[in-house]
């Protein structure tokens, strides 16, 4: 089950605005390793601000884990209210099962969503080969998610601009 963490219906934005719901951004984040994953949203928001874009157009949804992202992305894309979906998760080997099947299912599912709905789905789903919960690795991946969130913000702006150019 998803939870809306912040929603704004203010349509007074700059470049991302465009005056329709299509300019809204759905940001899905997995709750697993949330202390690390949440940094992607922080980096995403900071970079949008640095690019002079409104951050009040971001609706944030939390799902339990990465595996739930594709379905949530599809449901959000099908509403017609979002011009783009961004998804963030940290898929690591928990020692009980191989994380590769989860990573593959999530990334393939996100690709399928965008192909079926024609709503772009950007990935901040990181799947490192190894992760140990040591202070060094936690610090590294925490900062890495900030960087990846910023990269996703730049990709978001470019993708929405491309979408607008195709529409006109």
UniProtKB/TrEMBL annotation:
Biochemical pathway: Cofactor biosynthesis; riboflavin biosynthesis; riboflavin from 2-hydroxy-3-oxobutyl phosphate and 5-amino-6-(D-ribitylamino)uracil: step 1/2
Pfam name, any one: DMRL_synthase
Keyword Transferase: yes
Key words of the record: Riboflavin biosynthesis, Transferase
Biological processes, Gene Ontology terms: riboflavin biosynthetic process
Domain of life: Bacteria
GO cellular component, one term: riboflavin synthase complex
Top-level class of the enzyme under EC nomenclature: transferase
Residues at the catalytic site: 98
Transferase in keyword set: yes
GO molecular function: 6,7-dimethyl-8-ribityllumazine synthase activity
Recorded catalytic activity of this chain's protein: (2S)-2-hydroxy-3-oxobutyl phosphate + 5-amino-6-(D-ribitylamino)uracil = 6,7-dimethyl-8-(1-D-ribityl)lumazine + phosphate + 2 H2O + H(+)
Signal peptide interval: none
Name of the protein this chain belongs to: 6,7-dimethyl-8-ribityllumazine synthase
NCBIfam families the UniProt entry points to: PRK12419.1 (NF009084)
Purpose: Catalyzes the formation of 6,7-dimethyl-8-ribityllumazine by condensation of 5-amino-6-(D-ribitylamino)uracil with 3,4-dihydroxy-2-butanone 4-phosphate. This is the penultimate step in the biosynthesis of riboflavin.
Name of encoding gene: ribH
Family, as annotated: Belongs to the DMRL synthase family.
UniProt cross-references to InterPro entries, sorted A to Z: LS, LS/RS, LS/RS_sf
EC number: 2.5.1.78
Residues annotated for 5-amino-6-(D-ribitylamino)uracil binding in this entry: 32, 66-68, 90-92, 123
């Amino acid at each position: 089950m998803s939870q809306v963490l912040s929603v704004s219906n203010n349509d007074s934005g700059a470049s991302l605005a465009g005056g329709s719901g299509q300019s809204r951004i759905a940001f899905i984040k997995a709750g697993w390793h949330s202390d690390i994953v949440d940094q992607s949203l922080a980096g995403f928001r900071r970079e949008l601000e640095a690019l002079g874009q409104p951050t009040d157009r971001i609706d944030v949804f939390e799902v339990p884990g990465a595996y739930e992202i594709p379905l949530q992305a599809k449901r959000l894309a099908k509403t017609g209210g979002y011009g783009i979906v961004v998804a963030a998760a940290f898929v690591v080997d928990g020692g009980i099962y191989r994380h590769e099947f989860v990573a593959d299912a999530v990334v393939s599912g996100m690709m399928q969503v965008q192909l079926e709905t024609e709503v772009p789905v950007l990935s901040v789903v990181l799947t490192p080969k190894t992760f140990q919960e040591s202070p060094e690795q936690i610090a590294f991946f925490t900062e890495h998610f900030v960087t990846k969130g910023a990269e996703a913000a730049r990709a978001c702006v470019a993708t929405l601009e491309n979408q607008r150019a195709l529409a006109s």
